[in-house]
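In the laboratory, one determines a bound structure by crystallizing the protein with its ligand and collecting diffraction data. In a computational setting the workflow is compressed into a single prediction: the sequence and the ligand go in, and a structural description comes out. We illustrate the idea with zinc ion.
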Amino acid sequence: MSNNIRKQLVTYALPYANGSLHLGHMVGFIQTDIWVRFQRLLGHNCYFVSGDDAHGTPIMLRAEALGITPEELVRQIQIEHEADLKDFLIGLDNFYTTHSTENQALASDMYQRLQKQGDIVKRTIKQAFDPVKNMFLPDRYVKGECPKCHAKDQYGDSCEQCGATYTPTDLINATSVVSGATPIEKESEHYFFCLEKHEEFLKEWTHHNNHLQPEITKKLEEWFSVGLNQWNISRDAPYFGFEIPETRGKYFYVWLDAPIGYMASFKNLCQKTNGLSFEEYWAQSSHTELYHFIGKDIVYFHALFWPAILKSSEYRTPSHVFVHGFLTVNGQKMSKSRGTFIKARTYLDHFNPELLRYYIASKLNSGIEDLDFQQDDFVARINSDLVGKLVNIASRTASFINKLFAGRLAATIADHVLWNRFTEARLVIEKHYQDREFSRAIREIMKLTDLANQYIDDHKPWLLAKSSEKINEVQMVCSFSLDLFRILMTYLQPILPTLAKAVEDFLNVPLTWENLTKPLLNHTINPFKPLLQRIDLTEVIAMSEESKEVIEPATEITLKTTVLEEDPIRETITLEDFAKIDLRVAKVIQAEPVEDAQKLIKLVLDVGGEIRHVFAGIKECYEPEQLIGKSVVLVANLAPRKMRFGVSEGMILAAGNGGKNIWVLEPDPNAPAGARVK
Ligand code: 2FM
Ligand code: ZN
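The predicted complex, in structure-token form:
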């Protein structure tokens, strides 16, 4: 326990208020929450705030599409987000919104401070304008042909085919994605923040005191070498945001008031909390610590604009900005069509939030690499680490204490060496948590878990319990194992807070960092109740299937996307890569529905000398009888997959993105069963 109680304020990036939270958001919130819970466990005074990022064109248009006001939309979404975060056990002190009086007052005041410093300049610029909707168009709301490579259907800022960057007016045959009209160019006066005036300060700030991770500092060097530009912080009406003081019809750009939303959320918390002072945390002279956790796509805003704005408006600057990577699912970018774009709520409908918390933690480190949610690996990791090893320590030993000793633990430590090993691990585990090296913390804790299980295997209380003269030994061994379990659960408490609470109730003792060095002796515990169940891959598959169904095209609102935008072509492979896949013509000899599965049909296939059984997820599109006699293409060398209903020995090829959009590929019916497809 540190003698030095630190005052800390931690934030996680404010999610946009125009859609549901998904597992990508949860990675960041979980990382931040684990770190915050760890600080609190050490006894520090750690506040954690976030909120919704409520402003901007997409939110305005989404509300319009839904036929509600933007205020109503952001109100509804805030309720939804808050519930998701609470159910994922994110221990926020406040989840607020940027559309608040506190934020408006702070943003206006800070803007005026910037003005006083001479950091705001006015300039007239030309922008794309939709003459039908009567609105200026953000770059992403104009599409057309790339002026360089002539690829069709490119956004107004850059070409996804050739990488060229340009302005929307450079596009050939440009159209507004809002109305379909041809945009015109129109002039308007805008307000710019002079970022370049702060270059020296930023160069110093980004290179010192570990404000940033080394790889981020390096990235910033690239940006410095290109040069810093003035930043347009205004938008014309119609816009959902705050009107800029002393202007008419000019609004703060969403990214100006978004980070100020961190301050506003904290200010709102101060109003609700006795003795909590906004100035103490935000004044230039503050001695408190300020940490922003963010994803790697928004570094520019947090490592350049934000410190410069804070500095110029005479507030304190962040102690650290901690950047994390993105979540991929099964090695690929999350995709709605593949069912890997999993909403937080969909996950919660299927699994306990702590399983994801543990899984994510087991993969997180202090770097910015992406981390992969791998379905099989998730199941294996939970079943092996948490069920098979961790809670198994208690389930193997608690009943002896409960039944034979009325819940009373022994009076002495059974194995001092092992006990010391467990408590001494505290220092290294503490360091890993502090450094956001959660995967290392978990590896260390799992090593100890293995030692505890080994101890039980070596002493075999179930055998000792058979002879009455060894009864004291049973008490010693089981009490000691439960004490090791207590230590492990204390270490895991930031990751598994609900499980830790259940263990506190069972062991009848608070799991605190101070208690780590005090053995649990001569103490009465409560009856043991099962703590966690094994999970099954079929449940993960069901979650993924459900995610395919809940895709609402409305999340993309008026932005029409092409098939390839929704599901881009993957990275190039070599002929050798392709040759590894053995595709064969197969004839369907039998097809029947799988009773308990909403989507599966069981196929029996003739592959020209071999019979294969394959479960295909096509029940929503085909009647089994329709398939009998058809030719299909089989991925013949795919590793067999064990499913709840049996083993699937390959996969048949189909087009479409799942659900009701599946079209089984049929080769020419003359091709014989077994013929190679290439
Ligand atoms: O990228 C995003 O999702 C933004 N809404 C994050 C804002 S973070 C902060 F600046 F508010
Ligand atoms: Zn191009």
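Residues 120-193 form a domain with the Methionyl-trna Synthetase; domain 2 fold (CATH 2.170.220.10). Keep in mind that any predicted model is a hypothesis to be tested, not a measurement.
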